[in-house]
TrEMBL record:
Keywords on record: Hydrolase
InterPro entries registered for this protein in UniProt: HAD-like_sf, HAD-SF_hydro_IA, HAD_sf, PGP-like_dom2
One GO MF term attached to the UniProt entry: hydrolase activity
A Pfam cross-reference name: Hydrolase
Protein's UniProt name: HAD family hydrolase
SUPFAM superfamilies xref list: HAD-like
Length: 212
């Protein structure tokens, strides 16, 4: 569900993070934890789903230490160092194309820029490490404001998270574009009057930003 942007009213751009700014592989963490635990991947995926580890962490119901301890308990390995768990968890993040960051930086002079992501603190720290290593600004420096699910205790596609962003940043929905790779997230934003753009392969965010 993709709307054509009305550039005559456009003042604000809200970006998703995963598969919009940085490519991700959602299957990688489970695959890597399965290898570490010497368990079948399907079994680890079932455990993950049953206990909603991902959602609990990304909505801030558990913190970093509780998340890591939960992983140790569920996969029955209390010897794993924090770094081992963080590294496996961060395999979801693929190489970040620097052109996307450069294009977003160019847009700062014309639009108010925001980030809205279902994510976790471990992932955000890693993305910022990658950006710093590329001599680029951190996410918090790149955008006027960042809205992380674990901070606001809400997740897309809940309408409440979009209302929260609009209210907190003082944005008018119709003057705001939202770029996300998830159809449900796009639908929820569009229903609130936001100009919602579904970023879908083989296109990347750069294609959608060409003419604004």
């Amino acid at each position: 569900m993709e709307s054509i942007l009305d550039k005559s009213t456009l003042k604000n751009l809200i970006f998703d993070l995963g598969d919009v700014i940085i490519p991700i592989d959602l299957t990688a963490p489970v695959r890597n934890f399965a290898m570490l635990a010497n368990l079948p991947e399907d079994e680890v995926r079932a455990i993950w789903k049953q206990h909603s580890i991902w959602d609990q962490y990304e909505t801030g119901l558990i913190d970093d230490d509780a998340f890591r301890n939960h992983v140790r308990q569920l996969l029955k390995n209390d010897q794993w160092a924090d770094e081992v768990i963080d590294t496996a968890w961060n395999t979801v993040l693929l190489d970040l194309p620097i052109e996307r960051i450069k294009r977003i930086k160019e847009l700062k002079s014309t639009y108010r820029l925001f980030l809205l992501s279902n994510t976790s603190p471990i992932h955000i720290r890693q993305v910022n490490r990658v950006l710093t290593g590329m001599d680029q600004p951190t996410l918090e420096e790149l955008f006027e404001r960042v809205f992380y699910s674990y901070d606001v205790r809400l997740m897309k596609p809940s309408p409440e998270i979009y209302r929260h962003v609009l209210a907190e940043a003082g944005l008018v929905a119709e003057e705001t574009a939202f770029f996300d790779d998830n159809g449900a997230n796009i639908k929820a934003a569009a229903e609130l009057g936001i100009q919602a753009v579904h970023v879908q392969p083989p296109m990347t965010i750069l294609n959608y930003l060409e003419n604004i």
